[in-house]
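ESCALATION

Customer reports they have been waiting on this structure for their group meeting. Please prioritize. Original submission:
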Amino acid sequence: MSLDSPRLAVTILGSGTCVPSLTRSACSILVEMGADKILLDLGPGTMRRLLERQVTVFDISHILISHFHPDHTGELATFLFANKYPDSSRRQKPLTIAGGPGFPDFFSRLENVYGDWIRLEPGLLHLQDLSGDAQQPITIGAAGLAVAPMAHRPESLGFRLNFPQGRSLVYSGDTDYTENLISLAKGADILICECAVPDEKKIPGHLTPGQAGEIAARAVVGTLVLTHFYPECDQADIVAQCRRTYNGPLIVAEDLLLIPFPQGRAGVAAKQ
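Update from on-call: job pushed to the front of the queue and completed.
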C-alpha cells in the first residue's frame, strides 16, 4: 500500500529535538487512518506542521505521548487551548490522550497551571494511563496498539500500531538500546526510531545510527526511519554509520516527509 491511498498515511511532523532549528521541529508524527488521525508526541512546532499538512487540531482523534520531556509534550497545553477557539468550529468529536505510568498526574499538574484554559467540554477529553505491558489489549480507533517500556525515563513507552490492512508501524520514542524495542518492532513494516547523535558521540538514554540499525536488523523490519536528530547528526554520515549494522530500506526523516509503506509486505502482528 502506498501513501497515495487516503486510508493510511504517515507523516513526520517534527524530526528534531529540544534544540531550536529552522528546519526541524521537535518530535511529532501524524498517522492518518481514515477518520482517525493520531499524533505520536507533540513537541513545539507540531500545530504549524499540521496546518502545512492541511490537518487542523479539530481533526486529531488520539494523542500518544512517549514520555513527558518538553520536546515531546511542549505543545500539549497550547493544543488543548486551540481546541476551545473559535466558538463556531471548536472541537466536536472526542479526543483521547494516552501516556505512560503517571500520565494522569502529569496532566493534573498542567491543569494546576492552566485551569479551564485546557479543559474541554464534558465528554470530549479522555485520558488514558498506559501500563507499559505489551500484552495488554488496547485499541486506538480501528488500530490495535501494543506498548513496551523504553530505556529513557520511568514513563517512557514505545508504540506499535497494527492496522486493519495488515500493516504495522512502530515508534520508539526516546530510548537507549533495549531488547524491548526489538521485541516490539519484530516484523513491523516501518520502524520510526530515534537516532539522536552519531556513533562516536553516544550519550545515555539515546540511540546512535549503528544501534538503530542493529535493532532494525534484529527485528527484521520492512523499513527503518531515523529521526530525532541533534545538530551533531548534520555533521556526520549517519547513513554510513547505520549501514554498518543494517542493509535494508532506510529513510532519514525530514519535517513533512511522507513515509511510504513497503510494497508487497505485511508486518507480523505483535501480540495484542
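Sent to customer with the following note: Residues 103-114 form the longest helix (12 residues).
Escalation resolved.
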